[in-house]
Write a structure and sequence with these properties.
2 helices
Length: 71
């Protein structure tokens, strides 16, 4: 997943820019970007865990169907 590699790097860059840039416009841009990316990372992390659980449930159901069809 590219999201879990790229987004943290951009978050770090935005956080560093907040420390080194003194103009209010750029600070606001960095804070907004940081906030948005943190929310995206949180939502995508939750979606990934739900997809993994759903996939496990489908595999289990498929295995049950295969064993019942053999009888």
């Amino acid at each position: 997943m590219a999201v879990f590699k790229i987004v943290p790097i951009v978050i770090i860059i935005a956080a560093l820019l907040i420390l080194y840039v003194n103009t209010p416009t750029w600070r606001a841009i960095c804070i907004t970007t940081l906030s948005m990316l943190m929310v995206i990372l949180f939502i995508d992390g939750n979606a990934l865990s739900r997809i993994e659980n759903y996939h496990k449930a489908l595999k289990l159901l498929d295995m049950k169907n295969k064993t019942t069809n053999k009888m």
